Amino acid sequence: MLGKDEAKRLPAECARQSTSGARSFTEVLQARADLVAKLPAGVTVQDLLAPEGYLGAAEQLVDRVLRRHQENHA
Question: Which residue in 53, 32, 57, 51 sits closest to 43, CA to CA?
Fold first, then answer.
C-alpha cells in the first residue's frame, strides 16, 4: 500500500519520465518494481488506469448533488 505522499510522488515522477523518453506512462509505471510490488494481489497497472476504477463513484456523487439542489430549490 502506498502512503499519501508516495501516491502523489510516484505518478508525477512517471509522468515526467514518460514525457522525456520514448516510453508511455503505462510502460513507465509497469517498469517501476517498487510500485508494482505494492499493488494488491490481482491488480495490474492497467487496472489502476482504467476509468471505471477511479470514476466509479462519480455517478453517485452527481446524483447526490442534484438531489440536494432539487431539495433546496423546490
Answer: 53
